[in-house]
What does this fold into?
Amino acid sequence: MAKTHTITLIPGDGIGPEVTDAVVRILESTGVQFNWERFAAGAGAYEKHREYIPKELYHSIERNRVALKGPVTTPVGGGFPSINVTLRKKFELYANFRPIKNLPGIETRYPNVDLLIIRENTEGLYVGLEHEVVPGVIESLKIMTEKACTRISKWAFAYAEKHGRKKIHAIHKANIMKMSDGLFLRCAREVAKHYPDIAYGEHIIDNTCMQLVMNPYQYDTLLLENLYGDIVSDLCAAFVGGLGLVPGANLGAEAAIFEAVHGSAPDIAGKDMANPTALLQSSILMLRHIGEEAAADRVQAALEKTYTEKKSLTRDVGGSAGTQAFADAVIQVLAEAK
It folds into this structure.
């Protein structure tokens, strides 16, 4: 009997429920058995539970150890803390993994990009330790530990070795932040010694951004602390068509959350216009994580064929189809491939 995978599902808000429903339909069409435990988070959850992250959601992730999450709106300059950051810290999802690859049929300035962005996910400025020293003076603390810097470095090199990647660059600003970013570099260098077959280099963050725009092909795998990783992963997404097309995974020893990395786009919510590709690609990473490699390969092939044939693409990538019509097209390709 086929195994049933119980997955925590966080549809999110804005376009989240629409793209989540589309992706769930595609996943269920593969024949893999799923049991979805659905929970709201953010403002929607607060209205119902008076909590931005309900206790039941935490318990579900603890039980299932795998979650699929749509976009959740984060207030700017106030309001509740980021749901994404809170979940990452709660479950020590220390590795943020974003592969950047072109989809067929989408014309971009840089074809055949193949980059891995590996970002430390729990520390740095994202710990959110801020206070007002005196009126008009705010102090924000950047926390770096040897444990976290070593852990993410080991994850990056182990992944690179397993998947045949040949080069890792540690990205830093140690010329200015000599202690914090200096610690990050020392840990990466120490781990690199154990992987002689992987070329190791270091680039300063601002120079890296320029180098990426000039020639992204010079890089293979980028290892970054939290803030730099957030910025660079968005920059690199632009090479392949934007955040609406790239996946994201947050991985730890005890749990994993796979998510769309784009915003909640409230301006088009409920209009059947959103592109579910980012969350679908994230769900493919999830399928691999839970051991459903064959299903992952089939969904990836169906997605790429849909783009190659330009069948039922959404407006952001040059088509005219809606969210659910795009999902229908992928499902049809999956059915034809059986």
User: Anything to note?
Assistant: The first strand starts at residue 4 and ends at 10.
